[in-house]
Design goal:
The structure is a single chain. It contains 17 helices and no strands. The longest helix is centred in the C-terminal third of the chain and has 33 residues, at 288-320. α5 (95-106) crosses α17 and α6 (110-122) packs antiparallel against α15 (257-268). It has 323 residues and is mainly α. The relative contact order is 0.19. It has helices at 2-10, 13-26, 35-58, 62-90, 95-106, 110-122, 131-139, 141-151, 160-168, 171-192, 195-200, 202-218, 224-227, 229-252, 257-268, 274-282, 288-320.
Length: 323
Amino acid sequence: MLWEVALQNLTSPPVLAFALGLVAVAIKSDLRLPEAVYQALSIYLLLGIGIKGGVALSQSTPDEIWLPILGALGLGVVIPWLAFQVLGLTTKLDQINRGAIAAHYGSTSLVTFTAALIFLDAQQIFVEGYVTTLLAILEIPGIIVGLMLASRGLGRSVNWGESLREVLTARSIVLLAGGLALGLVTGTAGYARIEPFFGALFTGVLTLFLLEMGIVAGRRIPDIKSAGIGLVGFSLGFPLLAGSLGVLTGHLTGMGLGGSAVLGVLTASASYIAAPAAVRLALPEASPGIYLTASLGITFPFNLIVGIPLLVSLSGLMEGLGL
């Protein structure tokens, strides 16, 4: 059953488009989306997810969401701390680079989240609409905790005001939070008027976006050779550990199979949009080649191809056990 689910994920248009991007880099093609198109696609995805999440949130009650929100906040603190400790055991990286990587793995990947939603929809598995709220919540604390852990290895103080401003005003946060507010205010009736744009076209836009992400990730693959076996092992193994904690937390806080799987995917993912911007500002001493290779070159394709079906299957197993 797991292999059938994994095969279905591998043959979905978004994942195949990602693979095409990898192939394009391997054969040294000049294929690349124009920067303006790439930016437009990312804005569309962020705003669309936020709006749909806001509409679903307008139909939820406080009793449904307060425990999952608390669980997400807890994971936002525990995951980066755990990543920092595991990196200390598996690599010889200093505190600054360990903290930088922890900030990336404590935060989330919008595209991995979106791919999980489409995968679950194809499986006809229900997902609570408020999971987008959990995405927005998880985006911030992981970065802050990672920066705090890294700051202990600095010989200077961190400009926390500027760093927090960078995190809170990042495009991903503004569009997600703004979309949530729009969806919450307009509700189902308002969304019906824009559904043809943000509904029917969504998978097609994601497919184009993942084509570009395949190209970007493909250009990071050569860096894996210099990353070291410990970092490669972390980038493959830690997402499964963090994702399992996310799935378990989802079930313990009352979420169903689909919602718990998505929370697992969120905690298994690593940021390559919001976190790099904040880390570059607060931790210029950290090496982008290390944290981008780990998050984008290794973990992102691993989750897209293997992690999502594994975590969905784990969620189904936990549901069967009555968790």
